[in-house]
Specification:
There is one protein chain. The protein is mainly α. Helices cover 78% and strands 1% of the residues. The chain is built from 19 helices and 2 strands. The protein has a two-stranded antiparallel ribbon with strand order 1-2. A hairpin with a 2-residue loop joins strand 1 and strand 2. The radius of gyration is 21 Å and the shape is globular. It starts with a strand and ends with a helix. The structure holds 4-fluoro-L-phenylalanine (PFF).
């Protein structure tokens, strides 16, 4: 592990390593499961345009702010707020909320990741090929009904996550992202090339990019913002933590934009994989778990080469979920190390046991999924994002902020624009999303 001028704090080996790790955190179930569906439902191309604006005008500025906070303080969220404000101020609460959000998010994220591992296994053992819609629905119901099986895969997935994080920032997280992210991209390209050859390609393109303005409502705009937040891993300190390992000489603005751009590209590619397959077989693109774990395998089961495509798809999904889980877990691991002086291995073991303790009930009780997702996506992430935006825009030392933005940056000239966006439109937008998500708007 390389060291920083500050002492023993780890530092990414390269800017590319950082971008791959940050993109690994961003690219996850949100891109492959949620983005395609909400785009189709909310007006296709019109929604994609609104979404791109949300990423550019809200998501990316908050991401720059998060990475900046981490890099300036060289610590994870709780200590970053603590060290950059005074003891009497409540900012540290934003960091604490982030650590909590990470735990709760990982508890149900790992449940879904475990389903992806199970479906990889089913694909490898050829249990999906030729199956009817009912048979495949049966396979999924069997999995969700069998707690021991679900928990088994979940613990395996969590063990892998803990293993990578405990190997360290460069030898674990960076190394793993450098392999998994390019692999994920290649898998997506292969799957997309296949979808291009299908009869349903045009219908899929139309569903995604057709301008159906009538389906685009004010609610869709708020949904685009909420999705932008979740997909860029904002609001829970993951980017603060990853930013804390970024060299002070690196250009953090362009690295943030590269991360947001990669995330958006993957979401669009995943949609172009999914919909042509689903439409070719005359299926309805349903919402939620059924889209990936029933509808898609049903279509693949009827397709020549479907067994191999199914392996490729679910391996890709596991990679996406794993690099995101690693980021969530690193927030907790870094916090325990800093707060209690624990070694990385010890912090990982303790945090791993805690995540398993709340993750097992998440798999065992399907109600928890909805409750936890509501707490995290509708409350903790928007509030965390709001806290970061307000802190960096209004409270952080101005000279420090400017220096961080401009260091090595080709985009230094955008400092004023970025700060203005962060000061006014961003907080207003986040408050609107929050009010809409909790049912006030
Ligand atoms: N960005 C991930 C996704 O789209 O699935 C979810 C996520 C990962 C949120 C890491 C927060 C986080 F810290």
């Amino acid at each position: 592990m390389s060291s920083t001028p500050q002492g023993s704090r780890a530092q990414w080996n390269s800017r590319t390593g950082f971008i791959l790790a940050a993109a690994g955190s961003a690219v996850g179930l949100g891109n492959i499961w949620r983005f395609p569906y909400i785009t189709g439902e909310n007006g296709g191309g019109a929604f994609v345009l609104v979404y791109l604006l949300c990423i550019l005008l809200v998501g990316a500025p908050v991401m720059i702010a998060e990475i900046m906070l981490g890099r300036t303080a060289r610590s994870s969220p709780v200590n970053a707020f603590r060290s950059l404000s005074s003891r009497r101020e409540p900012w540290v609460g934003v960091g604490i909320l982030g650590v909590l959000a990470g735990f709760v998010l990982l508890s149900y994220y790992s449940t879904v990741a475990a389903w992806a591992v199970h479906f990889t296994f089913l694909s490898l053992t050829d249990s999906i090929a030729g199956g009817s819609a009912d048979a495949i629905k049966g396979l999924f119901d069997q999995l969700t009904g069998n707690v021991a099986l679900g928990v088994g895969w979940q613990l395996g997935f969590l063990a892998l996550t803990v293993g990578v994080v405990s190997a360290g920032v460069t030898s674990g997280i960076e190394r793993c992202s450098k392999v998994m992210m390019p692999a994920l991209f290649v898998l997506l390209l292969v799957l997309m090339a296949n979808s291009f050859t299908l009869d349903g390609w045009n219908e899929g393109m139309e569903f995604l990019f057709g301008m159906r303005l009538e389906s685009l409502t004010a609610q869709s705009v708020l949904e685009a913002l909420g999705q932008g937040f979740f997909t860029l891993s904002l609001g829970m300190g993951a980017m603060i933590t990853y930013g804390s390992y970024l060299s002070s000489k690196d250009d953090l603005t362009s690295a943030s934009l590269a991360t947001a751009g990669t995330d958006t590209l993957v979401a669009i590619m995943a949609s172009l994989v999914l919909f042509p397959i689903v439409f070719t077989f005359g299926l309805e693109p349903g919402q939620g778990p059924d889209l990936l774990f029933v509808t898609l395998p049903t279509a693949l089961a009827q397709m020549t080469g479907g067994a191999i495509l199914s392996v490729l798809f679910f391996v890709m999904l596991v990679f996406a979920a794993l690099t995101s889980a690693i980021a969530m877990f690193e927030v907790a691991a870094a916090y325990l190390q800093e707060e209690f002086g624990a070694t990385r291995k010890k912090a990982c073991l303790i945090a791993g046991a805690a995540v398993a303790a709340i993750g097992i009930p998440a798999t065992a009780n399907s109600q928890w999924f909805g409750v936890a997702d509501n707490i995290v996506s509708n409350w903790l992430l928007p509030l965390g994002g709001l806290g970061v935006a307000l802190f960096v825009a209004w409270r952080m030392d101005a000279a420090l902020r400017r220096g961080e933005f401009e260091a090595g940056s080709r985009l230094a000239g955008f400092y004023g624009t970025w700060l203005w966006i962060l000061k006014y439109p961003v907080p207003v937008c986040i408050v609107l999303v929050f009010l809409s998500a909790v049912g006030v708007l």
